[in-house]
């Protein structure tokens, strides 16, 4: 099965009346996965609804990628069950993708091969991730952030209802991570997608998600980010320093960023009029919630934000 293909729902759960709400895209109940004598996941429950971002966090080896692959139907559960809405379209960004450096692939050709897509389809997908300028560039010459945007465009070519993103910002610097998480959130809002995401980037991702599932072979805790950050299980996994220092940062603004970091007003296509140019300022409203439970808001004016 191609790594961004929608799996066959019947291979995991026979068709029957759904026990889930109409907006549910995928779910797991009592899920267990074993590899030989090693139990990787135990009694894991998970639900992903349309229009929400659910993020799996946990230490290395906790079973996060295994859970994602089980939800996709790429591995069979040892016990429990996985359900996906019949006919669900899934876009998948895998944790790793290696492309033979000998292959002379442009970005446009890479995307066209992935889904046998037309030039129009490729252009539309790149536009959605603010990467239209990369179409003619060699896939081997991209920066980490550019490559992840191209992989995200590839996942979007299925017109997915559910995006599954396994470490979508790996190999990307901090400012690039913020830009990618912002992009993922805007795609969710614009397209009504459900998003299931794996991440290690606690401080950034906790601001970019609606619900967090803290996993260490079983579900240690789950809920809204500000609730999870105060949970003793979270502290036990990530330490007192992480729990104390974790701030929930909500960044609401009316623009996006292109590959150079220039501001693009929401709803404008690539190549149309940009927002504030270099040297101009724009204001943001910020809300910070802290692990000790207090919150405050403030407005800041920033110089043009940079996105590598």
For the structure shown, list the relevant keywords.
single chain, 308 residues, alpha/beta, Rossmann fold, six-stranded mixed beta sheet, three-stranded antiparallel beta sheet, 9 helices, 26% helix, disordered C terminus
Any overview of this molecule?
The chain has nine helices and 14 strands. The protein has 308 residues and is of the alpha/beta class. It has a single domain (24-95, 103-267, 276-303), classed as Rossmann fold. A six-stranded mixed beta sheet has the order 5-6-7-3-8-9, with helices on both faces. The protein has a three-stranded antiparallel beta sheet with strand order 2-1-4, with helices on one face. Helix 3 crosses helix 4. It starts with 23 loop residues before the first strand and ends in a 5-residue tail after the last strand.
Helix count?
Answer: 9
Largest sheet: 6 strands, mixed
Low-confidence stretches: 4-11, 247-255, 257-263, 266-308
Please name the fourth-level CATH homologous superfamily: P-loop containing nucleotide triphosphate hydrolases
Report the structural category.
Answer: alpha/beta
Q: What share of residues is helical?
A: 25-40%
Strand segment tally: 14
Q: Report the oligomer.
A: single chain
Q: How many whole angstroms does the radius of gyration measure? A: 20 Å
Distance between the termini: 33 Å
Following the backbone from N to C, one meets helices and strands in this order, namely EEEHEEHHHEHEHEEHHHEEEEE
Approximate strand percentage: 25-35%
CATH class: Alpha Beta
Principal-axes geometry comes out as globular
Query: What's the structural domain tally?
Result: 1
CATH A-level architecture: 3-Layer(aba) Sandwich
């Amino acid at each position: 099965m191609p790594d961004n293909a929608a799996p066959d729902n019947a291979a995991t759960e026979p068709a029957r009346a759904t026990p889930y709400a109409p907006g549910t895209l995928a779910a797991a109940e009592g899920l267990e996965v074993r590899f030989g004598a090693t139990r990787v996941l135990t009694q894991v429950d998970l639900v992903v609804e349309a229009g929400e971002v659910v993020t799996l966090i946990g230490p290395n080896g906790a079973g996060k990628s295994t859970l994602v692959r089980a939800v996709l139907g790429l591995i069979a559960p040892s016990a429990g069950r996985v359900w996906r809405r019949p006919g669900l379209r899934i876009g998948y960004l895998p944790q790793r993708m290696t492309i033979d450096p000998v292959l002379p692939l442009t970005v446009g050709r890479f995307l066209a091969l992935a889904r046998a897509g037309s030039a129009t389809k490729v252009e539309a997908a790149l536009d959605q991730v603010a990467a239209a300028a990369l179409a003619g560039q060699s896939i081997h010459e991209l920066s980490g952030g550019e490559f992840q945007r191209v992989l995200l465009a590839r996942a979007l070519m299925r017109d997915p209802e559910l995006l599954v993103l396994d470490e979508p910002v790996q190999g990307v610097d901090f400012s690039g991570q913020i830009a990618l998480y912002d992009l993922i959130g805007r795609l969710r809002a614009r397209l009504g997608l459900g998003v299931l995401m794996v991440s290690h980037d606690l401080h950034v991702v906790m601001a970019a998600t609606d619900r967090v599932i803290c996993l260490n072979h079983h579900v240690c805790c789950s809920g809204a980010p500000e609730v999870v950050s105060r949970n003793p299980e979270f502290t036990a996994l990530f330490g007192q320093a992480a729990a104390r220092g974790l701030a929930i940062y909500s960044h609401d603004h009316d623009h996006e960023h292109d590959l150079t970091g220039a501001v693009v007003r929401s709803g404008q296509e690539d190549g149309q009029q940009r927002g504030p140019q270099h040297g101009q300022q724009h204001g943001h409203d910020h809300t910070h919630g802290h692990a000790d439970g207090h919150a405050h808001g403030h407005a800041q004016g920033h110089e043009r934000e940079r996105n590598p």
